[in-house]
Amino acid sequence: MTGTLLSIGHGYSARALARLLIPQGWTVIGTTRSADKAAGPDEVTETLVWPDADLAPAFDRATHLLMSAAPGEDGDPLLAAHRDLVADAAPRLQWAGYLSTTGVYGDHDGGWVDEDTPLTPSTRRGRMRVEAETAWRALAADTGLPLHIFRLAGIYGPGRGPFAKVRAGTARRIIKKGQVFSRIHVEDIAQVLAASIAQPNPGAAYNLCDDDPAPPEDVIGHAAKLLGLPLPPAEDFETAEMTPMARSFYAESKRVRNDRIKDELGVALKYPDYRAGLADLLRLEEAD
């Protein structure tokens, strides 16, 4: 199967999907805010600088739609600017995906959540994501848009690993009792999206995470071990100097279940835990 994917906010995760689709013969039209940030030829076949570009011709050609751009003060940026355009294209689209976040579930004191857990975000970013999900679901209900929602855990992968900070001696192990995060390698995000495209199930929501939620200090410690470097210093969360953004990530602690991507989509994770993911990242870095 091939088609034309219109990727709005063609960033890190969407580019990983494009690397799977383009060799199969897909056309991938990706938007970016500036031409100098355009992806390479293995990650996009056509680039549109948006919001300046007219998206109507791209929507006329698209068979599939992926929305990655984060919501802003006006809500979802595509719906805010082009709801009618999306609505008109809905009957022609074979698949539409919205990349959300597991932050929509809020804080569960380290407990488990799945796709049926009520959405009770405790951060502003999480609330904005719930509003965006709600807006996309409303549009799908009105137009028949074949919408799929993907709730992503913390993303890592090439260029987004902990090794640079560990090598530079700037890594810290922030300790907050009971804190756990779920995470996902970008290549596993791509394979889940590709599996969903191959097996559409409009209305479905999927958690994208690995099998091993873990305290963040464990990940930093393991990265240091792989590098043969000393364990980065431990700092208590309450007294550590952190930006408001960094501190906000510690406002919620939960373990995210991923059974649905396995049971419904048949996905076998390439990197089922951070140890496998970090080992491969290090192998890639050392091969460069």
UniProtKB/TrEMBL annotation:
Pfam families: Epimerase
Family annotation (InterPro entries): Epimerase_deHydtase (IPR001509), NAD(P)-bd_dom_sf (IPR036291)
Keywords: NAD, Oxidoreductase
Any one GO MF annotation of this record: 4-phosphoerythronate dehydrogenase activity
Enzyme Commission (EC) number: 1.1.1.290
Nucleus as UniProt keyword: no
SUPFAM superfamilies: NAD(P)-binding Rossmann-fold domains
Residue intervals of the NAD-dependent epimerase/dehydratase domain: 10-208
Name of the protein: SDR family oxidoreductase
Protein source organism: Psychromarinibacter halotolerans
Taxonomic lineage from the root: Bacteria, Pseudomonadati, Pseudomonadota, Alphaproteobacteria, Rhodobacterales
